[in-house]
Amino acid sequence: MLPEFKVAQLRHFVWVAELKGFHLAAEKAHRTQPTISLSVRELESKLGEALFERRNSRTAKTELTPFGQAFLPRAKELLAHHDRIAEDMALLAEHKTGHLRLASVPSIASRFLPGLLLDFIGDSELHVSMFDDNSRAVLKMVEDQQVDFGIASLFDEQERSEKHYTPVWQDHLGVVCLKDHPLTASRELHWRELKPYRLIRNGTSSLLQGSEAESLLAHSQYYISNMISLIAMLEAGLGITTLPWYAFPQGNTQLTFIPLHTPVVARGIGIVRLNNKSLTPPAQALVDFILARHSD
């Protein structure tokens, strides 16, 4: 049966060999000399061979046996491997290393995640892969375990069956149009005021389903799923659209956002993860960080 080595015994052996004495090794280990001697004897018992030459003189330096000389580099190799793993796991537990994968709806990915990730990652060596897409696509990536967790909306109870949802942000729908558009005369809008104008549907237009403004969707002439393309079409004057406030591009000088007061449509956005599946330490740390920053 192969011997099972204890890390402490290997470390004591290496220190005795390198420092040429049990007394100095005991000082380094902050142990008594008899403790170090016992540790080495137990290691020799497991190996079935002596590691050090036996000498009667207390002043003589401790020397390795030929077997000990052969074992020393292997003991060092085992300790180095152990220490690398221990360090890697410690860094992983402190979310300072590893690979974090998350998916988010574009509004949160562009408005909140840059600052959150900058503060969270700091000077660590944590690798991050982030995917931005609509809520349906984010939920699918969570289901397929392509990401550690997602940031999205849940539209029906069925979507909660295999997922744990933690609400974080609350968003409200409004109308986006050019700053010189006739609708900008109003501070808030009723959905009927949109009927005379060309409506461009987008990925968030489904929020109007089930509301009194649902009929607007059937009469929309265009559908654009990509946010960059949508903004370009709005800036060109192709029409108007509805967007949640967080999805409105900050700093845009050509467009404006007008809240929709009838109907009032709210969108909840939160963290979505699979039930009964633990997150990696970096992923759990980021979830805790987000909740500490943004939860009410």
Automatic annotation (TrEMBL):
One Pfam assignment: HTH_1
Coiled-coil annotated residue ranges, if any: none
CDD domains according to UniProt: PBP2_LTTR_like_4
Molecular function terms from GO: DNA binding; DNA-binding transcription factor activity
GO cellular component terms given for this protein: cytosol
Name of the protein described by the UniProt record: LysR family transcriptional regulator
UniProt KW keywords: DNA-binding, Transcription, Transcription regulation
PANTHER family recorded: HTH-TYPE TRANSCRIPTIONAL REGULATOR YBHD, NITROGEN ASSIMILATION TRANSCRIPTIONAL ACTIVATOR-RELATED
Superkingdom of this protein's organism: Bacteria
Listed InterPro entries: HTH-type_LysR_regulators, LysR_HTH_N, LysR_subst-bd, WH-like_DNA-bd_sf, WH_DNA-bd_sf
Domain HTH lysR-type residue range list: 5-62
Family, per entry: Belongs to the LysR transcriptional regulatory family.
